[in-house]
Design brief:
By secondary structure, the protein is mainly α. The protein has a single domain (29-195, 236-350), classed as Outer membrane efflux proteins (OEP) (Up-down Bundle). The chain has six helices and three strands, in the order βααααββαα. A three-stranded antiparallel β-sheet has the order 1-2-3, with no helix packed on it. The longest helix has 67 residues, at 30-96.
Length: 355
């Protein structure tokens, strides 16, 4: 009996169309907590940016009101220079009439020159504040200028609201809160690492040796499967990561509490400053009126020849210093009002954060 073991060569087609898909169900919340942490981090960054913008805006407003306060001082010094010029003319006429002295003329000239020097110094300080405003506003400094205008507007009334609203109106508080939220989410991520990773997978498609029957029911194929993996020994790594996440949350929570306490303290300080400055300004205005009356009386006495010019100079210097102090108090009140507005969030609230 004989057999022929040889085979003639041949070819055939194997047409395959297949797709695969896998899904890792978030049974332990790892993905969900990662998303929560990322969202909190994005909101914290947005709050940081808002806090930086608020600080810059407050700085610019304070510089602007300081500039306007210097304009008020310049106006007062201009008036004083005009009065001192008249005083110098008076002493010269009295000297020419034989009832004055060279000392009176020299003293009047000295005080006039000193006041002019003070006006120049005010101009230097004003230029610095003008440049600061221009720098923050991103203007071209060589061509930037602010026309002089004395600070003669009323102080705005700042709505305070209830204390609890402060937690929603300060971007630094919002940032600290979101970072605590992010740290809390990381605890969930670390805890999820203790549980097995489960993956569900499936594949399906068509396979045939003939194109005519390729994409048909009998040519269909599919498979489903599941896989679970668990790390048995890690040398305590997962436990250490979890402890680290808990410690970071405690630190973030403590920082959040600190920011809240500082915010409430800051608001109370600014309110106290405004109350005290208001009382001080009332007392200082009374001092200016008294100094003005004293100067008028001394000036009349000097013109009547019953006192020396030294009394007039003393009254004039007292008046100038009190006027300058009153102008400084007005600028400080506006600066404190700006700081109070910044402490209250400057109109910002958590609705400005990205969702």
């Amino acid at each position: 009996m004989t057999s022929d073991l040889s085979r003639s060569p041949g070819s055939y087609n194997d047409l395959t169309l297949e797709g695969q898909a896998s899904w890792e169900p978030d049974l332990w919340g790892k993905i969900r907590r990662n998303v929560e942490g990322a969202n909190a981090a994005a909101q914290a960054s947005a709050a940081d940016m808002a806090n930086t913008e608020l600080s810059l805006e407050a700085e610019m407003a304070e510089d602007y009101f300081q500039l306007r306060g210097l304009d008020l001082q310049a106006q007062l010094l201009d008036n004083d220079i005009r009065d001192l010029t008249n005083q110098l003319d008076l002493t010269k006429r009295r000297l020419a009439g034989g009832i004055g002295t060279e000392a009176d003329v020299a003293q009047a000239q000295t005080v006039l020159d000193t006041t002019r020097a003070q006006l120049v110094d005010v101009g230097i300080a004003r230029a610095e504040f003008e440049h600061a405003v221009g720098s923050i506003a991103d203007y071209k400094l060589p061509s930037f200028s602010i026309a002089p205008a004395p600070l003669d507007i009323d102080l705005p009334n700042v709505p305070l609201g209830v204390p609890s609203q402060l937690l929603q109106r300060r971007p630094d508080i919002a940032a600290a809160e979101r970072r605590a939220q992010q740290a809390n989410a990381q605890i969930g991520v670390a805890v999820a690492a203790f549980y097995p990773t489960i993956t569900l997978g499936g594949s399906g498609g068509f396979e045939s040796t003939h194109g005519g029957t390729w994409i048909q029911g009998p040519s269909a194929l599919w498979s489903l499967g599941a896989q679970a993996t668990e790390l048995l020994i890690d040398g305590g790594r997962r436990r250490a990561v979890t402890n680290q996440a808990r410690d970071q949350f405690e630190a973030s929570a403590a920082n959040y509490k600190s920011v809240v306490f500082l915010a409430f303290n800051e608001v109370e300080d600014k309110l106290s400053d405004l109350r005290i400055l208001e009382q001080e300004e009332v007392a200082q205005h009374a001092a200016v009126l008294s100094a003005q009356h004293s100067f008028d009386v001394s000036n009349q006495r000097y013109k009547g020849g019953v006192t020396s010019y030294l009394e007039v100079l003393t009254a004039e210097n007292t008046l100038i210093q009190n006027q300058k102090t009153e102008a400084n108090l007005k600028s400080r009140k506006f600066a404190s009002s700006v700081e109070l507005i910044r402490s209250l969030g400057g109109g910002w609230d958590v609705s400005h954060l990205p969702k």
